[in-house]
Amino acid sequence: MHLKKTGWWLTVGFALICLLPFAGVIAGSLRYPGPLPVTLEQYGRALLQNMTFYTGFWNSCWNTVLILAINIPISMLAGFGFSQYWFPGKDALYWLYVVLMLMPFQAVVVPQYIILQKTGLLGSRWAVILPCAFSTFAAFLLSQYMKGISRELLDAGRIDGLGEFALFWKLAAPLCRPAVTAAVVLVFFSSWSMVEQPVVFLDEISRFPLPVLLSRSAALFDGTAPACGILFSILPILLYRFCYNDLVEGISLGCVK
Amino acid sequence: MKEKKLLSWIAGFLAAIAFCTLLCQKVNFLLCPETAVFYPQQTSLEPDGAQYETVLPVACLTPIGVDEYLLFYVQDGRAYQATAQIVAEKDGLAAVSASLPPDMPVVRYSSKPLQDGVKVRIVEEILP
After folding, report:
1. Residue A36: is it exposed, middle or buried by C-beta count within 10 angstroms (0-12/13-18/19+)?
2. Which terminal residue of chain B, N or C, has fewer Cβ atoms less than 10 Å from its own Cβ?
3. Chain B residues with CB-CB distance to A48 below 8 A
4. Which residues pair with B119 in a beta bridge?
5. Are B55 and B81 members of one domain?
6. B48 shares a domain with B19
7. Between chains, do A238 and B10 touch, taking CB under 8 Å as contact?
8. Structural domains in chain A (count)
């Protein structure tokens, strides 16, 4: 009983430590030079006077939407292919996918930089979007989940006259909804808070997403950076709030086989 | 049902941000000081006839000390302050020694007091 109580207090303590930075940002966003100790002036200034916030916010939005629009359909098809078909070199290719997934950005930054430079994309929005749009994490997650789809079900679909793409679209894709949701949420989080790629591949401030602007050019925000950070966190929190169950189910069923 | 709720929340949030973006653009436009600018010239000032690198109207300069003046130049839509000394002066024009970026316009009039780094809108370019 005593051990249980100690564990509970330890958990609460660690949770509070984790929440401390966010609480600090919230507290910071409620202060602004002036007579009032607590004020919403930062939010007012961020929302009504600071175009830098909107430039960064919409850049982040476009980057994230385009990355998701390319990455998720391709990953679903790749996951279906890896889980349901056999083809020469499949294992080697899958192994390559896993290795690429485990590689940190710092390991691939130089080749990516050279390729983007040669293709003339360096400095454009696509320099950030394309490398992330073809990341292999979602394909790995979805292929692990799709391995659980029963072969009999797909065979029954074939007997009923469904083509291979129809099998994927009408049978496999609906069954994988939790995994797809998990992939969308995880890719969204990584794209939304992307910092390294824009710093390396972009040079114009007008193309930077908000996390980069907040970390590099705090002076542009005229003292409203904490409020901008809070406003920027609303969308991921909403997504997490509504997708929590699917996220947990997708990750747990996808990765524990 | 849950997806609909999620989509409506996200759509509502994005719509609110889009509305605030437009509002912010309008507010910035209204709050942004309007300025008339002058492009400093390389020219000679009579009667000595010597060539000076930077010649501009005296009205661009605000005295801040003995033989020291303040001026604002515009770069990337923002006004930045610089200090200058008058080297020669005639007929409302002054040759100044100031470390200005090349080909940057200097503020001649402003609808509001300027501060270093403030965004400005150029509404008029004054010809020499």
Report:
1. exposed
2. N
3. 20, 23-24, 27
4. B78
5. yes
6. no
7. yes
8. 1
Q: Provide the residue range defining the domain that includes B106.
A: 33-126
Residue B21: closest C-alpha in chain A: A54
**8 Å CB contact between A238 and B10:** yes
Cβ-defined contact of A234 to B25 (cutoff 8 Å): no
What does the pLDDT read at residue A184? 92
Does B20 lie in the same domain as B63?
no
Q: What is the CATH number of the domain that holds A105?
A: 1.10.3720.10
Do B24 and A58 lie within an 8 Å CB cutoff?
A: no
Report chain A residues touching chain B, CB-CB < 8 A.
47-51, 54, 57-58, 61, 234-235, 238-239, 242-243
Q: How far is B10 from chain A (nearest CA, A)?
A: 7
- A-chain CB neighbours of B28 within 8 Å are 49, 51
Is A8 inside any structural domain? no
**pLDDT beyond 50 at A256:** no
Residues B58 and B96 reside in one and the same domain: yes
* Residue range(s) defining the domain that contains residue A93: 48-255
Tens digit of each residue's pLDDT, chain B (128 residues): 677 888 888 899 999 999 999 999 888 888 888 999 988 876 766 656 677 778 888 888 888 888 889 999 998 888 998 888 888 888 788 888 877 887 888 999 888 888 888 888 888 888 76
DSSP of A168-202: IIIIIHHHTHHHHHHHHHHHHHHHHT--HHHHHH-
The CATH number given to whatever domain includes residue B38 is 2.40.420.20
SS3 B127: coil
Whether omega before A21 lies within 30 degrees of 0, making that bond cis, reads no
Q: Report CB contact under 8 Å: A51, B25.
A: yes
The verdict on a CB contact (< 8 Å) between B20 and A239 is no
Task: Dump pLDDT digits (tens) for A10-52.
Answer: 999 999 999 999 899 999 999 888 778 888 989 998 898 888 8
Q: Do A242 and B6 touch (CB under 8 A)?
A: yes
In sequence order, what are the residues at sequence separation of 6 or more whose Cβ sits closer than 8 angstroms to the Cβ of residue A165? none
Residues B38 and B49 in one domain: yes
Local confidence band at A254 (pLDDT 50, 70, 90 cut-offs): low
Same domain, B62 and B106: yes
Pair type for strands B93-98 and B50-57: antiparallel
If asked whether residues B67 and B105 sit together in one domain, one would say yes
